[in-house]
Predict the structure.
Amino acid sequence: MSNALVQIDSLCIDVKVTRTRRLTIVNSATFDVQPGQLLGLIGESGSGKTMLCRSLVGTLHRRGAYINSGSLTFNGIDLVNASPKEWRDIRGKEIGYIPQSALAGPNPVMTIGAQMAEAIQLGEKMDKGVVRKRAIELLEIVQIRRPEIVLKQYPYELSGGMKQRVMIACAIAREPKLIVADEPTTGLDVTVQAEIMQLLKQIRKNLNTSIILVSHDLPLINEVCDDIVIMHAGSTVEKIPSAKIQDTRHPYTEALYRSRIDLVEPRGKLVTINGQPPTVGDWPTGCRFAGRCDYAKPGCSADVEIPSIKIGPNHLTSCIRQAEIWGK
Amino acid sequence: MSNNKAFAADASRKERIKEWVSRPGGFGIITGSLMFAAITLVGFIYPLVGPYAADEFVGESLEGPSLSHPMGLDQLGRDVMTRVFSAVPADIGIAFLGVTIPLTIGTVVGILLGISKNKYVVSTVSSLIDGINAFPLLIIAIAMVTFLGPGLFNVVIILTLMSWARYARIARTKAVVVLQQNYIEAAKLMGYSKRRVISKHVAPNVSSESLAYALSDFILVIIIVSGLSFLGFAARPPMPEWGSMIADGRTFLGQAWWLTVFPGLAICWSAISLSFIVEGLSRRDRGNS
Amino acid sequence: MNRNVFLRKLGGRLLRTISISFWVMVISYSLMRLSPGDPAEARLGAGADPEAIIKLRETLGLNENAFVAFVDYFTGVLRGDLGVSLANDVEVLEIIKRTFPLTLTYIVLSVFFAFIISIPIGTIIGWSNKASAVYVFRGITSIIIATPNFFIAMVGILLFSVKYNWAPLFGYVSDFPGNLKYLWLPITVNTLILVSIISRVLQTSVVDTRAEEFVETGIIRGVSRPRFFWFYILKPSLAPTVVLLSYMMGTMLGATVILETIFSLPGIGRELVGAVLANDYPVVQGILLLFGVITVFLSFIGDLLAYALDRRVKL
């Protein structure tokens, strides 16, 4: 694990709400990303996954958030204390970002071509002909037909799927080592979703890029990703290889898995998870899932630090009772 | 969890009020309301209890502010403070009528337009409404004075004739949006009569939007009423009214600044207090402070 | 492919603008008919010669059927004939040509200066993280907007004409640069109010834009500062401001009436007031028509410009 591309240890991200009040969004995140790995990041809203993504592209300060403690390393570079110059060398060139399809997309007041040029040049001066050629090349990689026409269009003329492909094209423009994809298919049609996922898998294969794929859709992540990191209430609670998802060692993962819609028999009962995730900042002591956990015992809510227990070479969990529940 | 206390059924009255105030915009709404209530109340009560009457000649003309006459005397020796407060029914009262009447008429017309299936009627009336709205309010009000004659009462008529179109436009736009909502469809499917659907679902939603606009409009109308009086088209002397007082004071601008400044401040006070309320409400809507 | 759609929408909008202008004409013409009394009599006075009254009614077209009279008026307007002033027999069009340029001048200048000042203010405050700055800004602008323009003008006069003799109380000289002395105070008053309104809307717009995800993408792409400022902050935020501006021009025209009265400027606003006082119907109708049509076309142009800036705007 020492040649990991990204290493995150006990990362803690806080947000400045008012001059005096601070809220902890991410309490203790620990995982790593290997080169060429497709890692899924699963969690409910409020679990902190988006903040984690922002910490990887260095845009936390925009929302008044900052890294309070822990370490975040990319390719050996310390991102917690990175200077603006270091970020400029990393952002876009080494780490790419694909925003949430439902929220964002391309800048509505610029043509696609202008934006792709931005993504390709990243502030450097380049020959216009070279940039245009590369833009067309990228659009072809993301399977957009008639790229020369698309370059001249504005975002409102494109469909959701096409816009997202453009965002992917922009993200891979400089062939970064890592791509952070924050819910890239949320809100898109199921068929389009499948196509985009295929595209990402292909990109990973051809460019050997690591991809962190954030989602709340477990079946999707399970199918596409090599490994999965599950987050709940600001902490990473389990890291498990996709193939082994049924051998989970954390009650939350188990509950997520069991509540999959596609597992429901016709006329069967829908399995849900009790309760709501705790309000951000108002977290209970001990294990934060204890309030909703079927296996919880009083000891789970004690004011102890939640450990990270290693089960297998690629499997970590934070359930204190895992040995009792599932055996050694 | 501490925020959620106020929503609990057993939250005390005091706690719920406190929570309502602490939400964004609360400060503005309260300050504005208090300020506006203050001037309105004083305006209606002071003339009854004050030492002088609005048209009483009580001293030397053009005397500056003093203890017995905090706002000075005007060119006819009348107490400016009494006159300023006596003008409240004229300025604020007329403005109030000039908002509520068009509001009612306009909203009703707007909802009817929104409901109507008759394409020709809708497009003709809409064009008419757009036509009326095309004129700056002050301009068309002045033009109307040519044809209807001056006077405070006529101003109300003029405002009604001209303002209803703005409310109708807003009401219609909102009504169209509301009618497309799913809950209207649901109500109809449940068998509610058309009248019930309109009165219980369409009307409240449309009215809330119209009322919000009405508050901003109130500010505008106060300024227009005093503006018209300033030009001599609305209130006539010796009726106390802020705009006409400012116009009168213009001749003595160099010698007696209090004749223009105090009525002007009264207009400002009314408009600012209302705009605080509007600002507070909009902050509340936007969810930030 | 989408050029045709655009042209079609443009055509539709233009058509609507023209049809609204038509209604504007109808309204400005028919107001006279709303008079409870006899307009001719009102103009000439109650004790006037009955023959003169009849003659005036004839001139004003009051004896004819309303529809016919309007058609006459309509065709006249298309030819450029807006009627003749009852007060001095000058063609209304001439009166407009004589007085409108001045009004237009100081309005355009006010808007120009206001824009230049509002853009930096609105953008900086909108982008700022300091809650105190935003509070102060919105507070001050609220107060300025809520203050009637004639009061600001009077305070301005009190300070700059009465107390310090920096601006003359009345009078006007039409040639440049002499007229600057007379115009600077009204323009300043106008600009002050406009800046408050425009910068406010811009500030709100920038705050909205700032929260959008694509701005984040711009930061990640390392776009150069000036480029970022224009494409990611200003351009996406300007659309509401432009639309507002076109609406404000209409209101400004209205405000000129009061401003010109206070500053004794021989513009079209003062002309209107005079015509109203004298019951000079053709002039009133003509100016009313002018203002209405200008406002309608300005709103059309405003929407067009907003669309050019930000394709999200609906035409």
About this structure: Chain C has a mean pLDDT of 84. The two ends of chain C are 17 Å apart (CA to CA). Chain C touches chain A through 22 residues (CB under 8 Å).
